[in-house]
Model the fold of this input.
Amino acid sequence: MSAFNTIFNFIYASHNVWYFGKEFCRFQNWFPITAMFVSIYSMTAVAAERYVAIIHPFKPRLSAGNTRVIIGIIWLVAFGLAFPQCFYAEILTDNGTTKCIVVWPDDVGSKHQLTYHIAVIVLIYLLPLMVMFVAYSIIGITLWSSAVPGNHINRALYEHQVNAKKKFVKTMVVVVIIFAVCWLPYHIYFILGSFKEDIYQQKYIQQVYLAIFLLAMSSTMYNPIIYCCLNQRFRSGFKIAFRWCPCIKATEKDKLRLTSPSLYQSTRRKSQKSTIPPPAHSSSPEERGSLESRRQAWSEGLQAPVTGEGAQK
Done:
């Protein structure tokens, strides 16, 4: 996104003139949009993976081959959704000013344009938002309402686990809300343009679009900030990564927190060695405790997702 879109969009918005030719006009209406869609679907896939990991901890994790297949499907879907923007991108001259715009086929009421943008809203905004909301809601409810394993847990550890659950739920709620708020103006902009095309001819519309565009692109930028504020393990990793900075000090406790495997990782390895799967209807205290321990350790060891960014005009 930074190399192929941001600078060129900024120049275009500042001068309101396209200097970079027809081929790059089509490219910047295709690949950066594809990367943007991949970023959104990657966030959705991460939410689904977290749901399986915490709600069904005994299920085997995806193999490397299956992961590659999912990544390939995400890219293919993103390429397909972005292709119409590339196909209809054209260079037009208006009053001596060269512009790069998407020229949809002539039809009554701009049905092609409206249909496309509605499909994008459903597939890129509403569907991912619903998946993330449902997945994180179920995870949050499960963590919030789960009992503390065993009767030997002291009060201090119990309070620590409860606080970890609350922080996890808060983190997921904030992530989903940020995603929804950042992308809503972007989709509203294009839906309004589908009903009223002269909106794109307004004097400062390119600057308005740039502001909306940057807001949408910044949606995942806030995730590291959210995780740094609400997750101790991520905060320790941040301190170690930036320990060269004079104002940031990493302690031995921070190093230990990152080098020590989480309880979830340890119990996961043990369960994979077991040849007898646990009964689905198990109700013994030991099995309940094992499941709760995995859920708790997973929530405490939560890591921020790494996603790509895309952009479009």
In short: Residues 155-195 form the longest helix (41 residues).
